Amino acid sequence: MIYDSMDFDCVFRSAAPSDYEQLRRFLEAGWIELYTARISKRSVERFIREDGAGQHLDLHMATFELAVIDGSIVGSVNRCDDCITALFVEKRYRGNGIGSCLLHNAEIAGGRYLDVPMFNARAISFYERRGWSKLCASEEDAFGTRVGSFTMGKW
């Protein structure tokens, strides 16, 4: 079910230490949703076993921004210097402007670059509609599976 924007109140705020476990689960679910159909089962198992979401949070918890509805995290974005990572919105809340608000806030804070997997056409289209451009192509390691990605930028 997609929620109409009038059906909920969304609060945008910085992540707090008390958000760690809920945000770790949120990021893990988002990564699995995005990558499971595109990478090997072994790589997904490795991501879970090595706590890939927790590793990312251990490095970047202080720079995460959240979208929260009724105490639950429904969206996230991280901005570290001029790089944006971990922009994700829970499936049932997509299409309500939450991702656009998170991206806008990251841009205002100085985010100018991001990487997106080449297979994620939905995200690429989302960024291009908001003025982002593909700058270069590369490969990233998704826990043992090579995945093509685009670096995108906006000035």
TrEMBL record:
PROSITE patterns: GNAT (PS51186)
CDD domains documented for this protein: NAT_SF
Ranges for domain N-acetyltransferase: 10-155
Coiled-coil zones: none
Record-linked InterPro entries: Acyl_CoA_acyltransferase (IPR016181), GNAT_dom (IPR000182)
Protein name, UniProt field: GNAT family N-acetyltransferase
